[in-house]
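Invent a record, attention on tokens:
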Amino acid sequence: MEKIFEYIDEHFDNMIEELQEICKFRSVIGDEEGLDKSAKYIANKMELLDLNCKSYPIDEGNPIVFGEKTGNENKTILFYNHYDIVAEHPIDKWKYSPFKGEIHNGKIYARGVSDNKGGLFSRLHAVEAILAVKKELPINVKFLVEGDEETGSTSLYRFAKEQKETFRQMTKADLCIWENGRKDEDNNPWVRYGVRGGIGLELVCKTSNVDVHARMGSIVPNAAWRLVWALSTLKDVNERVLIDGFYDKVIPLTKEDIKVLNDFPFDEEKLRARIGNRKFIDNISGYEVKEKLYTVPTLVINGLESGEMYKSKRLINPYLASAKANFNLVANQDPDEIIDLLRKHLDKHGFEDIEIYITGKNTPVRTPIESEFTEIMRKSAQKVYDKPIVLELTALGGGPGIVFREVWPEIPIIGIGPANTGSSHHGPNENLSLDDYKESIKHIVALLYQCIKK
């Protein structure tokens, strides 16, 4: 393995140049040129590595790029990544151009370098290094790279449904390495055991056809008040969701889960200082903060809108009100069931007129901490990192993990990768540390070889 690591060190500049090149493509949804160039660049890289590569066109979506190569052992790792990115706005907050891949102070700056092009290319570069030195892979590898993750992976879900057997064969593996991972502020590499789920929605209340003067508020229903009353039935002052059955399918924590949460490094003082918060809800601290953050589902109001608040002063009784909200779900909760429970709850409380519009949904997926791959992760990381891995019960972000689990219910889904807590996902000045990127490449190499020792 040392020879492979030496190859990475010697060819690292070339690897960074390739990462810079893919980051020059503005693969934002709606930018067809940037998306097309990204998909073709990835496919070309796979072909250069002699992977069996195919791009699957998607109606009303972007191509899925798939590549695979057989190794010596009959074991398979599937890498899931995406090449679409979020828009670069606000552009005035960027210190450097978001689409040049500039390097400053040991970091590469670009939109998408961390989420998710760096994660993808660290894996491709690991395969490159192994093949360059050993001429063959220790185990089978597969790459499934989609182009619609940032907008809900609708094309991936549709592909899995319409081409069931093809998707089944594409995703057959012993382990799925999810799109990314990260290091924390103390340089500890994290290993993530699944993805959170969620539902994005909008609640709309319409009481008539036009606004009327405020003096008519005693006889004409006020949409803003009615929406507030409806919202007040969803959650109590102790932050508990009041929808019947909302918590019924939440999986109890195992002893190992509790140990992982206890051991998980979480600087609550630093978080409160950063966001200007004096105390958390119910004044919780320590273990309880981590438990609620990672294992307790909730409902959040993202914004409210009604009436005339942004122009001139008008004394009106508004006819229309809306609230954007989202459910944060945990393992075993079904978004469709939660949506149904929400509808029943509103109807039960006399709010049949409140309309629900779903803007997005993801099903949560968790991999048991007791997975046999935990020890493999530990041993492979020891060959690269100065510090031991930190187990994260689940990533706080979402993703289409359920589409893999519906086909292969037992497949472990684990996230590792080159990002860090300062990578600024979805924000200005998105970046990746060059040192972290190199270590991530080496970790993938070590992981592939560690799998044959299992």
